[in-house]
Design goal:
Blueprint (H helix, E strand, L loop, with lengths): L2 E5 L5 H10 L5 E7 L5 H6 L4 E4 L8 H5 L4 E4 L6 H13 L6 E7 L24 H14 L5 E6 L11 H7 L1 E4 L11 H14 L1 H4 L2 E5 L7 H12 L4 E4 L2 H8 L1 H11 L9 H6 L6 H6 L8 H5 L19
Parallel strand pairs: 1-2, 1-4, 2-3, 4-5, 5-6, 6-8, 7-9
Helix pairs in contact: 1-7, 4-5, 10-11
Length: 323
């Protein structure tokens, strides 16, 4: 095998798809990371050659994970930013070994390919770029500053992600709510992000080092259109109920609410050609995502009911916002 690729966050929505895709290549040894011991066998079933315990908050787990690794898929939950930045320093100490890092990120606060000003909001005077977007850029920058060969996938908001907090009401009563209303956003399928990552890791730093790709869906959709697609996939009527931004902030905290404000002002409406340029085909539509299986064998509808960081009544970003 010509290279060993470490897949962090391998049990996540993107990670599972990436493991399954990379495992199809006989020239790649896939080392998949797990946090929960119960997930190790699932990763082996997806085709991982090796599985390894990994925790961004525990540096003692990093040495075994990185042994003989030549490329890294880097992804982390938003509250784990500090652990990610510390891990970047370890990767920097190994830059003679680590030839390529593909980082999952988000559109909107980078300063290497654009000129974003941290305290200048896109549409509201006196406000700053959402802190979560700044965090995504810091996650990229920490790798770049270490002198590593970096590819960043700057993704739009994930399909299904905005619905996960309403799974109970969708299932029992057929409705969901959020403040996005009629604004259309080009939500992206997580399986498409995995496919883009697989292309970049397989083709390597010679083609993709110091490249930054915006990965979006094929069409911007409003919440009513999302509800119609979900209802068609489920075979029942699904209703979108508008929510005020004040109520949304009360549910999830100010840091997440300011990010959602960008989803209401058109910042994520455009459709990027980068996915097509990487893969040679159009991104996956929301309905197709819901009703067809990805490389890991799951449909988007099956994925909708799985775990979620965000819970109503909890501010998941409370600690991360202090960084």
């Amino acid at each position: 095998m010509s290279q060993t690729i470490l897949v962090t966050s391998a049990t996540g929505r993107i990670g599972k798809e990436l493991v399954a895709r990379l495992a199809q290549n006989p020239d790649i040894k896939v080392r998949a990371c797990y946090f929960s011991d119960a997930k190790a066998d699932d990763l082996k079933a997806l085709g991982a050659d090796e599985v390894v315990k990994f925790d961004l908050s525990d540096a003692a787990t990093w040495t075994a994970a990185l042994q003989d690794v030549t490329a890294v898929y880097s992804a982390s939950l938003d509250p784990m930013l500090e652990g990610h930045m510390n891990f970047c320093k370890e990767l920097g100490r190994r830059k003679d070994q680590i030839k390529h890092v593909v980082r999952v990120s988000c559109m909107g606060a980078d300063t290497n390919t654009a000129s974003y000003i941290a305290n200048q909001h896109a549409s509201r005077p006196g406000a700053a770029i959402p802190l979560m977007l700044q965090h995504y850029w810091w996650g990229e920058k920490a790798l770049i500053d270490e002198g590593l060969n970096v590819t960043a996938l700057r993704n739009n908001f994930f399909m299904n992600h905005l619905l996960k907090t309403d799974c109970e009401s969708i299932d029992a009563e057929g409705w969901f709510s959020n403040p996005l209303g009629d604004m259309r956003n080009s939500f992206v399928a997580t399986r498409d992000i995995a496919e883009a990552a697989a292309v970049c890791l397989t083709e390597g730093p010679e083609r993709h080092a110091n490249k930054f790709y915006d990965i979006t869906g094929p069409a911007p959709q409003s919440m009513a259109e999302i509800a119609a697609d979900l209802g068609r996939a489920m075979g029942k009527d699904i209703e979108y109920r508008p929510q005020s931004m004040v109520d949304f902030e009360n549910d999830f905290g100010a840091t997440r609410a300011e990010f959602f404000e960008y989803l209401t002002n058109g910042f994520y409406t455009r459709c990027s050609p980068d996915f097509y340029n990487l893969t040679g085909h159009k991104p996956t539509s929301y309905y197709d995502y819901l009703t067809t299986k990805g490389a890991s064998g799951e449909t988007g509808l099956e994925e909708l009911w799985q775990g979620n960081l965000w819970k109503k009544g909890e501010d998941a970003m409370k600690d991360a916002a202090k960084l």
